[in-house]
Structure formats: C-alpha cells, structure tokens
Amino acid sequence: MGKGRLEAFSDGVIAIIITIMVLEIKVPHGFDLAALRPLIPVFLSYVLSFIFLGIYWNNHHHLLQAVRHVNGRILWANLHLLFWLSLIPFVTGWMGENSFAAMPVALYGTVLLLSALAYFILTRTLISHHGSDSTLAIAVGRDFKGKISVVLYAVAIPLAFVNSWLACILYVLVAVMWLIPDRRIENTLTL
C-alpha cells in the first residue's frame, strides 16, 4: 500500500500533540512580569519537548521519503512510535509543573527513551520491508546518533534521582545533537 496515509496521519498526530502541549500552559492571573515567573519551568519544559517533537517530525518525514510503500507491520510500528510521542505532553506538563523534580524528570527521560526505541523499531521494520540494500538501509547505516541517544537517555534516567538538572542537560545534549541536520537520507536520495 502507499505511504501517503501513514504520512498524513503521523503529521496530524504530531500536530495535535504539540497543540495539546501548548494548551497546558495556563495563563497567569497577574498582570505584571512577576506573574510569569512561576511559568518559567513550564515554558522551558515546553520548549524542550517542542524541539524533540520537531526533530521526530523532521526525521520521520525524511525516513518516509526513502521508502516506496508500507505494510501492516510498518503501520503498527508507526503507531507504536506515535503512542510514546503522545505521552510527551503529560510528562512535559508534570516536569514543568514540578520545577524539574527527580521523578518527573526521570519519567520524561523514560518516555524519550521509549520514543527513541520505537523510532529504531520503525526504522528497522522499514529496512526489513525494503531490503538491506535499499536506499533507506544505506542511508541509515550504523545509526550512531540513534544509538548514542539511547545511551544518553539510559544514563539520564537514574541520574535524575541524583541531580535532575544534569539529567536535563543530557536531554538537551541529545536535542542539540539532532538539531544539527542529519543529511544521511537526503544525501543518499540525491546520489
């Protein structure tokens, strides 16, 4: 089957996730800048999550540019990814509302870790369907950034109970690493 519906559905779900996140930021009752101070952690957690969702949306788009068609296994692998991404508004809100306390930061990292693993599963399912000599398989290669991301999340989760800010720095590090455009698929498609 074609990949168009999968792309459109995924785009819509990610757009809804971002919308839900921004709606969770409550307007303060005060009228001066001091009224915004309690929202700083909420806003910071929103910005980080918005960046992560943007990274997933961008990479998902590139991933699907390298494939021709999808099957039922791919649809379920994609839904698996969307499930974990759909939890980002909850953990974002909990983390922000509790000023980056240990348990919310650890759960945030757990959702990021499971999202990364789901993305890995989707990628492997697509490669399995299209073959180890496919454009996608060549483009993904050894996927160093994907593997190092999983390691950093796995380190950050227990670290959150020692120092939640250090765990958050690792999350930011992963985001920055992915903000640098990953041109593997684009470069492979233009060869």
From TrEMBL:
InterPro entries: TMEM175-like. GO terms for cellular component: membrane. It is found in: Membrane. The chain crosses the membrane at residues 12-29, 35-55, 75-95, 101-122, 150-180. Pfam families: TMEM175. One of its GO terms (molecular function) is potassium channel activity. It comes from the Bacteria. It catalyses: K(+)(in) = K(+)(out). Keywords: Ion channel, Ion transport, Membrane, Potassium, Potassium channel, Potassium transport, Transmembrane, Transmembrane helix, Transport. It is a multi-pass membrane protein. The keyword Chloroplast does not apply. Belongs to the TMEM175 family. This is Putative membrane protein.
